[in-house]
Amino acid sequence: MTDLLRDNIQSALGSSFTLDRELGGGGMSRVFLADDAALGRRVVVKVLAPELAEGLSAERFAREVRLAARLQHPNVVPVLAAGAGPDGLPYYVMPFIDGLSLRERLAAGPLPMPEALAVLRDMARALAYAHSQGVVHRDIKPENVLLTGGAAVVADFGIAKALSAAAGVGTKLTQFGMTVGTPAYIAPEQAAGDDVDHRADLYAWGLVAWEALAGRHPFADRTSPMALIGAQLTQVPASIATVRPDAPAALVRAFAFDEAIAVAAPVLSQSMVLSEADLAVSASIQSQGHLYAIAQRQTISEAITEILIHRGEPKVVHAVAGNPGARISDDSFCELVARSAADAELALRVGVRPDIPRHQFLKLLETASASVCSKIVAANPQFADAVQDAVTGVVDDINLEVRDRSVGHAKARRRVKLLTRSHELRETNVHAAARAQNFEQMVMALSVLAGCPIEMAERAVLHENPGVALVLAKAAGCSWATAKLILLIEAADRKMSGKDLDRARESFEQLEIRTAKRVLEFYGTRRSTGAGASLPVVSAVAAEQAALTG
Question: Taking the CA of residue 353 as centre, how many other CA atoms within 13 Å lie in the half-sphere pointing to its CB?
Fold first, then answer.
């Protein structure tokens, strides 16, 4: 730096900053160290190279720098002051960062994975903050990333934009080949001179990430600016796995477990690198935002959906239920049906899934109809019976249509029909079906043996009161061994303790077959005449009374 230029800059800085020595620079600026007399600290003063300053508007430059100076973030190097010397050369002042630049650090080779992740995460946080404030860097490169105190900070925010805004037609910066930015890291649209937004920074961040992991630029063999830009326009960088086989999985996993949802969500929702164990851990310990991201995946295993449904708030559970690629176990469907009682939107999402087991669909219909009835009756108690009958009729119609389309039901019907024609249908068939968890064949056989409609048998088996299922089992001529299997069938989801089963057995053994048949006949008659047709097989109280009185 000449003595005249130094004197001009010192004159512009006044007594606030005292120039010390030149640190060097490169590209578009000259850099030197200075002392902040008032605060007793070291600062850096960057001055635009004289050969590029011709025609620049110092006023516009300072205005743009002031906008960037608003940024206050731990990973952003702040701008302390800006102005122009007597000769019109723009300058700006920032704190002196005691440490290496990422460029200097890369001279020693690729960064170890933990260090690379830390640097890239800090850069991403700086960019995310700046973008939220409407500031685009436009010149992300290793030289502008400074490493100090175990952290990475990004310098020169807003400077490239300030230079572009200050440049007039015919200046060096607007001539061909002098687009503001660094060719090795410039986004294609920026190289073409088009308007750019935050995506230009993300593009440059990706290139820096590749270089940090590989230890070299992906197009390091291109030596001229035009060759670098041309390579980025026409070629795809080699996979980082070719130079760092450990990078993709480790990098993806690190991002997936980042606390910031903005960082983790794209990985959790899309990456195929994450293992089942990774997803299980994430779903088990991370926030609802992370769970929601997992719920967006193209495919989700039963094990993961179980965690999501168990831990998830309504938004997460709705996403799982509405995701056709989510595999849902019978236990998880059971929980979804239970939660649907107070959530109409969830009931709809669960009800339209083509993979919902029919017994779960039946419970969903009963749950939804009970919820609807309770709301209508609460508002119009005088219409309680009519409302119950109407809703039950609709449920039966829907169930009939679904039942007729069920492959499992059709198979069970053919099987029971053959056994009936050959006079071979017996309790043993019910017992075997219940033991095999074959709901369709079990209820079909019970329906025939008890002489009741299939919908009555289905409701009895699934009814929350075990006394209802006992009436059906007794009417079908079943022993306690078979009745016990009916009570414990997974489709009914009864959580019965040993004491519950002992009480049920006592009630079952006191109940006579003729009494059980009378109960079913009574209910069938009421349904056929339309009187109280909505009663589920028999009320809980009546079932218990019938079981106990015989």
Answer: 26
CB-based contact 430:449 (threshold 8 Å): yes
Q: What is the pTM of this model?
A: 0.50
pLDDT digit string, tens, across residues 134-152 = 888 988 999 999 999 999 9
Does residue 376 register a pLDDT over 70? no
Determine the Cα angle at 399 with ends 393 and 405, to 5°: 145
Cβ proximity of 439 and 516 under 8 Å: no
- Kindly list the structural domains of the chain, giving each domain's residue range(s) and its CATH number in brackets, ordered by start: 3-95 (3.30.200.20), 100-238 (1.10.510.10), 247-356 (no CATH), 388-549 (no CATH)
CA dihedral 248, 249, 252, 258 (to 10 degrees): -140
Asked if 13 contacts 45 with a C-beta cutoff of 8 angstroms, the reply is yes
Give the pLDDT confidence of 186-206 residue by residue, as tens digits.
888 888 878 889 999 999 999
Distance in angstroms (rounded) separating the CA atoms of residues 44 and 337: 65
Give kind and range of the element (H or E) at residue 482.
helix 480-487
Calpha distance 391→373 (Å, rounded): 7
d(CA 537, CA 96): 82
